[in-house]
Amino acid sequence: MKVVVTGANGKVGRAAVQALLAAGHDVTGVDLARPVFERAVEGAARYQMADLTDAGEAFAVIRGADAVVHTAAIPDPTANPAHVVFRTNLMATFNVLEAAVRFGVPRFVNISSETVPGFLFAERGFLPEYAPVDEDHPAHPQDPYALTKLFGEQLMDAAVARSDIRCISLRPSWVQNEDNYEQNLGPLVRDAALASGNLWSYTDAYDLADAIVLAAESELPGHEVFYIAAPDTAGGRDFAAILHEHYGDTIPLRPLSRPDASGISSAKAQRLLGWAPKRSWRDYLDADGRALASS
Question: Measured between alpha carbons, how far is 45 from 66 in angstroms, rounded to an integer?
């Protein structure tokens, strides 16, 4: 397929481009970075600069695609003014999806977020209604980033209602790669007393990329939402024990697939997409949370 990957220079975008190329697809990478003659996006056939908040530029890069993987976004609400996060993320998603609908692109993969229920950036305290969290959990976003991700999913619902496009929204947990495992997960591996705003969950960038390929190739109808998370907790700790230690009985615990199960369930993605995570923090870090020499 001819696949357009937006945000192709980002952590998720780079991994997605590599995985789609390895799967035999023709990939065009799109991002804000200015192209130069020598620029390549990890082997992508083409690279195009575009500001996707501009409808004309979004339409220009989507034309002719068989599938769109939309990873482009400001990734959190903390480093930009709230209105910038909201406007950038929501308008980019709207413009790219609108172009896909108008050009008859059959498949759209939307990178949403684990924050949709209200995790991580809530200004007032938030606790999930149960754990592990799954796709049925109610959405209570407070911050502009999580709101744009929820609204993005609603845009997918509207698109499939008015066209033949098939949409999949992936909600990855905290995405890690070889560059940031030690910085981000190392403290959680070393110290069992540390709390975690997303229930000790994480996602390997390359496992997420595998899910993106499956989503781009999927024939699932309508719009489906899938959480993508590693099957284990950061640090490999007993989930029931750490949940009780930090939250007492305030978060009802549902059945676990394994003692060290993640606080976010990816069972639906494994069942309907055929996704099988292959990587763990253990592939990158030792028992003290330090980077392995080979990682």
Answer: 15
288: in domain: no
Q: What is the CATH number of the domain that holds 201?
A: 3.40.50.720
Domain range enclosing 204:
2-283
Residues in the chain predicted with pLDDT less than 50, given as ranges, are none
End-to-end CA distance of the chain: 32
| CB-neighbour burial class of residue 105 (10 A; exposed 0-12, middle 13-18, buried 19+) | buried
Residue 293 lies in a domain: no
- Residue at 67 is within a domain: yes
Q: How far apart are CA 169 and CA 172, in angstroms?
A: 10
Establish how many alpha carbons lie within 13 A of residue 142's alpha carbon, considering only the half-sphere containing its beta carbon.
Answer: 10
For 56, other C-beta atoms within 10 Å of its C-beta total 10
Q: What predicted TM-score, i.e. pTM, was given to this entire model?
A: 0.95
* pLDDT for res 120: 87
CA distance 282 to 218: 30
Structure confidence at residue 46 (pLDDT): 87
**What does DSSP say about strands 67-70 and 175-176: parallel, antiparallel, or unpaired?**
unpaired
What is the tally of structural domains in the chain? 1
Beta bridge partners of 169: 110, 225
Task: Answer whether residue 273 is part of any domain.
Answer: yes
